[in-house]
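Pipeline run #58 for the internal structure catalog. This entry was flagged by the ingest filter as a single-chain record with no existing model, so it goes straight to prediction. Upstream metadata was stripped on purpose; only the residue string is passed forward. Reviewer on rotation: M.T. Logging verbosity set to normal.
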Amino acid sequence: MPLRLAEAQQLYDGLNDPLLRAALQAFIEKQRQDLRDGLLHAVRQHVRDTMKEARLAGKEESYDEFLLELSRFAEEQLRNASQ
């Protein structure tokens, strides 16, 4: 569902706000660190669960791209809504 112009503008402005962006980056880094800790714990277990390890690694990788993809989405939605 496409965003309305006001919604797209608010999302775009929020992602470009230095305070909100810093907060989002801190949140993402905290999530990634928690996932890394969980992955290290899983790898060190006597009985390894490779599916759990892969799931944790995949989640950690997804946080790498989250902010970039969200910014791209905001730009796309703003462009589409303003046409």
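catalog note: The CA atoms of residues 15 and 70 lie 8 Å apart.
catalog note: The chain has a mean pLDDT of 92.
status: ready for reviewer M.T.
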